[in-house]
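Q: Could you predict the 3D structure of Coiled-coil domain-containing protein 189?
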Amino acid sequence: MILTEERQKTPLAPEQYPKIYQPKQHRAKIIVWADLTVDSVDRLNESLNADHVKQVLADIFELDNYKDNLKTGIKMDLFYYTLQFAREQRFSSEKISAFFSIMKRIFEVCIETPYGNLDHTFQYFKDLLLCHSVNRPPYSIELFNPHEVRKITEYAINTFFRHFKMYKYAFTPKVRLDLAINYVGMPASPPPSESELKGAEGVQVEDAVLDGGEKAEEIDEERIAAREELRGLVKDFLARESKRIEGSIEQHLKSAVASLNVQIDSMIEANVPEKGKKKK
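A: Sure. Here are the predicted structure tokens for Coiled-coil domain-containing protein 189:
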């Protein structure tokens, strides 16, 4: 809600609008030590409390204002709880770095466009996980075992993908379409004059002064007439449809009988010569 209010209070000029990207596919690759180096992982492992871990993350990824800025705070929570899960699973330094980079990459794909790209992001997550669980160098390495792959998948689904729309709302611009239609070759409609407005007001006043009983009777008569007209239209339509269906059925029956007669005649013609041969 705060982000929405800020957008409404400070409208941007057309040239200041952020560039909107369409959802796209991403190619997975090995990302061990891509975001967290060996020294970074060692610093995080040496941290004993949550405040120290967050301070180290703030130093590495320049998130110093995570306590005051909402967006930075959300990103800090994502990074911190990702590390907490890796610690609970007792991942090695390589696994911590790879798992952290996987979560960071899918977060970046999520917020790169305001349009829906849940399928693209989840497919990218699966491809990244596959790159680090199958031994097929140089395209992939066997870093996570099947049990760890299942745990990572459950964690990502229950945390990141469960709050996918929240991340997109907080980090992507709001897209709104302002549509204006101009008819080519037609003059613009002039605004109504004061006399026309007064005349319309007078007609409304006269209608309001009419007797309520007379208006009710007129409305009832109109409803009855409309109902009778509708009933007649329905009857005519049903009569035409019934005739059309009857004609169609008769045509199908005639064609079926004709086809059956042709088959019978062909069978008779095929049997006549055989009988003649037997008599001879």
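Q: Anything worth pointing out?
A: Residues 212-279 form the longest helix (68 residues).
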